[in-house]
């Protein structure tokens, strides 16, 4: 329960002069309950994060125990954090949320108690007793309700649809049909063993993701957020369109730590969007820049979004391999956004920050120690340590370096505050990955993933490029209403078999799904990141969303390129990778010029078209496309300089 809500409750109470003595007594008791509830949430959140910090240091428990405790904490705290009514301090809300939290404690505590049996469970062989069935049904209802509160209806709708598909599959048409399962059999398969709710997705949440959330909270408390903003302003603020370029730099750094596009928008957008508007950018463009830059943080190494950890687990490769593969596409993405904001600044004549507003060198030097935890993190990942161990090292490095600056010292109070913040932030990820486990469980049980291969093949007439287009659309639709990690998990379970059946390599196939799950955050009609940015910019949502898509256009093109030519994922010989990278960078610049229609002055439609074609050809690795692309770019430059072709 937030401080704001407590304040609202107290304000209303203080302004109510009339009423009986009994009502005043009730108000006082409710106020005390609100305060106690807030303390309870904080204590539980600290215990939640503390448990994971302990296991990060001393080693995780067996999978069933680690995952069941993780979900137990998340759901119990979730019912208290996300109230059932719009009046969190009301008696009804306290009774409902407190009761559901206690029921969740009993229900999911049962799985913790029986974790040993779950680890040895053989589905449809081990006896599934009546009490097991009752607990699993109750747990499903609780999980869906707390997920509705934490993430909204879309993910709940997806979970329910897959459960219903498991039941009514025998009545579905064509390739969607399966043999069918009783509801009791579905519940057993989802909760007993490690293929459903307690499967890989929540396993990653309970180990890697939560440690990086804790690291992010510690880093912020040590002043890391302020340092990133100051470095971003110093590096990019002096150039034309400085505030927008600052947004790109800081959002990429924040995003790789937070792993959440929406959280990143709110974290940096409250500073960058007003700066952009103050120096002359239109509100919709300012919001679009922040949304696109924040979304890109999920594909920016070294940490990337939480989905990258799940990908490494699915593929069975070290996380550092996934991060390395993402480097070149992420660079191309941010070059495109940089070009867009630079061309827009040139078009409307914007300059950078005034010199007096730039951070002083001495202030930057005093904060340079805060770069050490990130360096430690990168070193640990490259050295071969697990992401969890690397995250723990980064946390301890943050605590140590915080004492270099008196105002940023991580005192015991600040450490507890950071743990509380991390515990609360983990809840949404934990329940979302648990529901995605329902999807994985049903897909595994029914074999719909293999059926989807047939659907894609029949719709595309066996043409791989058309198949990729359908898979892109399906991924964008799935990713619009759910967190990126969950969208990727669902897509990976359903469409990766289709991509493999088309002959594509495993890593490019997963990266293809991952990219479109990420870019769904700025793709209307939902576009959660664009919506958050539009709210901060006080402008229209759809215009912001479509502008963000223009800024992030590279993310719609690059996956189609690297899935055919994986050199951009560092697959292949070094010379081919270097040539592909250089040509792709030139291609992105040409593509940006064509899309935004500016090269020293406004371009004609013909010239823009030539730049776009040249840019796309250069992004595709290969001598033929590179030479042809250079020819188109050269023609575009020539056309741009000839007044006869100008408007």
Tags for this model:
mainly alpha
Task: Describe the structure in brief.
The protein is mainly alpha-helical and 647 residues long. It is 75% helix and 0% strand.
What is the H/E string? HHHHHHHHHHHHHHHHHHHHHHHHHHHHH
Rg calc: 26 Å
Estimated share of beta-strand residues: under 5%
Helicity level: over 70%
Instruction: List low-pLDDT spans.
Output: 1-36, 643-647
Oligomer: single chain
Number of helices: 29
Round the mean pLDDT to the nearest integer and report it.
Answer: 84
User: What is the overall shape?
Assistant: globular
Descriptive notes:
This protein is mostly helical and 647 residues long. Among the domains are: 149 residues, no CATH class; 76 residues. It is built from 29 helices and no strands. The protein is globular and about 80 Å long. The termini are far apart. The N terminus and C terminus are likely disordered.
Write the layout of secondary structure elements.
Layout: H1 3-14, H2 21-58, H3 63-81, H4 91-113, H5 115-119, H6 130-151, H7 153-168, H8 183-191, H9 200-221, H10 224-236, H11 242-258, H12 261-278, H13 283-296, H14 306-315, H15 319-348, H16 361-367, H17 372-382, H18 387-402, H19 412-446, H20 448-460, H21 464-480, H22 484-501, H23 506-519, H24 528-537, H25 541-551, H26 553-562, H27 574-596, H28 605-619, H29 623-641
């Amino acid at each position: 329960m937030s401080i704001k809500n407590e304040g609202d409750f107290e304000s209303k109470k203080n302004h109510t002069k009339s009423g009986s003595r009994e009502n005043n007594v009730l108000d006082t008791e409710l106020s005390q309950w609100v305060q106690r509830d807030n303390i309870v949430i904080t204590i539980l959140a600290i215990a939640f994060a503390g448990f994971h910090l302990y296991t990060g240091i001393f080693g995780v428990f067996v999978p069933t125990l680690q995952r069941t405790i993780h979900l137990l904490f998340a759901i119990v705290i979730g019912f208290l954090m996300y109230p059932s009514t719009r009046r969190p301090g009301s008696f009804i809300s306290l009774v409902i949320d407190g009761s559901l939290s206690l029921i969740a404690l009993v229900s999911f505590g049962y799985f913790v108690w029986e974790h040993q049996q779950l680890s040895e469970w053989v589905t449809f062989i081990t006896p599934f007793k009546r009490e097991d069935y009752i607990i699993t049904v109750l747990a499903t209802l609780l999980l869906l309700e707390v997920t509705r509160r934490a993430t909204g209806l879309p993910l709940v709708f997806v979970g329910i649809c897959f459960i219903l598909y498991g039941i009514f599959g025998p009545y579905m048409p064509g390739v969607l049909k399966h043999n069918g399962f009783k509801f009791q059999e579905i519940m057993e398969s989802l909760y007993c063993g490690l293929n459903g709710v307690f499967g890989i997705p929540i396993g990653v949440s309970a180990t890697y993701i939560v440690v990086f959330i804790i690291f992010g909270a510690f880093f912020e408390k040590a002043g890391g957020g302020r340092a990133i903003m100051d470095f971003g302003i110093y590096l990019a603020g002096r150039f034309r369109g400085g505030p927008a370029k600052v947004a790109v730099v800081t959002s990429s750094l924040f995003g790789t730590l937070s792993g959440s596009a929406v959280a990143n928008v709110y974290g940096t957008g409250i500073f960058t969007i007003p700066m952009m508007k103050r120096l002359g950018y239109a509100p919709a463009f300012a919001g679009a820049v922040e949304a696109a830059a924040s979304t890109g943080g999920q594909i920016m190494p070294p940490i990337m979004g939480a989905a990258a950890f799940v990908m490494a687990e699915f593929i069975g490769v070290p996380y550092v391999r996934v991060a390395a593969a993402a480097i070149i596409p992420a660079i191309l993405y941010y070059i495109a956004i940089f070009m867009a904001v630079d061309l827009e600044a040139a078009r409307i004549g914007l300059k950078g920050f005034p010199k007096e507003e730039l951070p002083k060198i001495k202030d930057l030097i005093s904060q340079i120690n805060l770069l050490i935890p990130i360096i430690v993190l990168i070193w640990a990942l490259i050295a071969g340590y697990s992401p969890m161990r690397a995250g723990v090292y980064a946390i301890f490095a943050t605590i140590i370096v915080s004492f270099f600056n008196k105002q940023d010292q991580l005192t015991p109070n600040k450490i507890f505050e950071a743990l509380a913040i991390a515990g609360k932030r983990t809840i949404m990820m934990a329940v979302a990955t648990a529901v995605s486990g329902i999807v994985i469980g049903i897909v595994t049980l029914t074999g719909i993933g293999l059926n989807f291969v047939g659907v894609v093949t029949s719709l595309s007439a066996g043409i791989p490029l058309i198949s990729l287009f359908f898979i892109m659309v399906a991924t964008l639709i799935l990713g619009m209403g759910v967190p990126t990690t969950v969208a990727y998990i669902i897509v990976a379970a359903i469409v990766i078999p289709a991509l493999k059946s088309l002959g594509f390599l495993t890593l490019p196939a997963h990266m293809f799904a991952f990219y479109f799950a990420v870019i769904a955050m700025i793709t209307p009609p939902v576009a959660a990141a664009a919506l958050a940015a539009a709210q901060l910019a006080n402008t229209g949502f759809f215009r912001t969303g479509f502008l963000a898509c223009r800024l992030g256009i590279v993310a719609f093109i690059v996956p189609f390129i690297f899935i055919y030519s994986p050199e951009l994922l560092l697959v292949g010989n070094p010379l081919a990778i270097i040539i592909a990278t250089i040509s792709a960078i030139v291609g992105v610049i040409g593509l940006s010029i064509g899309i935004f229609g500016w090269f020293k002055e406004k371009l004609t439609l013909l010239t823009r078209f030539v730049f776009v074609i040249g840019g796309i050809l250069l992004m595709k690795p290969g001598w033929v496309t590179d030479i042809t692309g250079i020819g188109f770019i050269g023609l575009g430059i020539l056309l741009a300089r000839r007044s006869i072709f100008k408007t």
